[in-house]
Structures are given as structure tokens and as C-alpha cells.
Write a structure and sequence with these properties.
three-stranded antiparallel sheet; 2 helices; alpha+beta
Length: about 80
């Protein structure tokens, strides 16, 4: 089973973003129109990353910056 993101522009201007078979978020208004414009301008791989960021399902595992790692903070 694939867990890729997909999106669907609705007739009322909303954009539903799905992951697998579930709707994970709905964008409305200006956010929806900006999202659609961006989707037309990027590659399929970048679309997946953009949808992950919009849904909040982006920061998993080791994506945090190295400066935020406890080992790299000053004494304290």
C-alpha cells in the first residue's frame, strides 16, 4: 500500500489533500489558490514534499537542524 500524498481541487475552490485513502487536510481561500499555483510549478517529487509540509506531516525522525541537537548546544 502506498502512502503518497495526492490532492483534489473542489468546485468551491477548496483543496483536499489526501494521504493514502484519508483526507488529512483541507485548504481554503488564499492558501488553496497559492497551493494550486505552486503545484503547477514544481516536479512530482517536490509536490510530495510540499504536501507533507502543508499537512504538518513533515518533521519525522532526523529532519531537525544539527544546531538544535542536544549534543551541539553549549554547556548548560
Amino acid at each position: 500500500m502506498t502512502a503518497d500524498f495526492s490532492f483534489h481541487a473542489r468546485a468551491n475552490g477548496d483543496v483536499a489533500i489526501r494521504r493514502g485513502a484519508r483526507i488529512v487536510t483541507v485548504l481554503r481561500g488564499r492558501r488553496a489558490s497559492e497551493f494550486l499555483a505552486r503545484m503547477l510549478a514544481v516536479s512530482p517529487g517536490e509536490r510530495q514534499l510540499a504536501m507533507a509540509r502543508v499537512t504538518g506531516n513533515y518533521r519525522r525522525g532526523n529532519e531537525r537542524a544539527a544546531v538544535d541537537h542536544p549534543r551541539n548546544t553549549g554547556p548548560g
